[in-house]
Amino acid sequence: MDAYGGDDAPLVVVKGVLEALSKEPSLAIQLTGPIESVHAFLKDMPVECRSRIVCVDAPQVVDMGETPARAFKDKPQSSIRVGLGLLKQGAADAFVSAGNTGAVMMAATLDLGRISGIERPCIATIFPGKRNPFVMVDMGASVDSKPSHLMQFARLGLAYAKVALGISQPTLGLLNIGEETSKGDQRTQAVHVGLTQSELPFIGNVEGKQLFNGAADVVVADGFVGNVMLKFGEGVADLFFDFFKTEARGSLRTLLGLLLLAPFLKKFKARYDYREYGGAPLLGVNGVVVIAHGRSDATAICNAIMQAHRCVRGNLVSQLQSSLT
Fold it and tell me: Residues with Cβ < 8 Å from 94, sequence gap 6 or more?
């Protein structure tokens, strides 16, 4: 776990680690970062939890606004690269970071290497649907992808859905501006042809308005569009919750009404709050790497760790390798 990844690290990271350890007795976590500083944040942690934590010194920290190439070249002892080094050496089963996304992606790709047959890794995100969640790839690892890349993303997404969602035969859709085969730009049309001719369980184009209606278990898109959709969804969720908070302060009647609705609002938040999903795995590299949101709080950090744990137990990398053979 990258102790210095995220806007509010290392405090929220340590809190998230504590929460994860309390949930999963089999977990043991290595925290990478400037060791004296990390130790200072662990001093008040319960003894039973401290015994399952090892601090690994990583004297360099990558800033959130730092360019990935510069961070990779100038900071070989960063909390990101030290953590990935542990994973590569087999001293860790997974690596989780809420730090600089570009730096994590570049370091993971170069230090761990790509799975055979993968030209570019992709980021997969689980979205809540009306009935069941679905997986979307790519969410921003590549903002200028070729049709061949999207074909690979589709295979990776399907394999991930089997592990993360427990779906034995997930269906696949292509995000587009219309259901007709002629819709979309040249790249999207080329991907549609390729998916149609493949053996994959492709059901056709999926429009934005259909995403949350269970149109497909896995939806593939280029990273530019995927990342815009991800940020838009987060903004809508924040708007929703901020609206009710503001209204609750405005009138006693509204406050009483919201108190009556509290159980339903809590259920809604558990389903649609991004923190409940924790992070997004970087698919296509030789190891389980989970990227959490930079503004993750302790709950999001905990859930990112739990997601990494599920990926390890589900043999995600082996599943991804098998999907390409």
Answer: 87, 287, 288, 289, 290, 308, 309, 311, 312
pTM: 0.88
Question: How many angstroms separate the CA atoms of 144 and 227, rounded?
Answer: 12
| Cα end-to-end distance, the chain, whole Å | 31
Those residues with Cβ within 8 angstroms of residue 86's Cβ, 6 or more apart along the chain or in another chain: 30, 32, 56, 92, 95
What does the pLDDT look like over 21-57, one tens digit per residue? Answer: 999 999 999 999 999 888 888 877 777 777 899 999 9
Taking the C-alpha atoms of residue 237 and residue 239, their distance in angstroms, rounded to an integer, is 5
> Is the backbone peptide bond immediately before 8 cis, with ω within 30 degrees of 0?
no
* Domains along the sequence of the chain with CATH: 1-118+284-325 (3.40.718.10), 126-275 (3.40.718.10)
d(CA 96, CA 84): 9
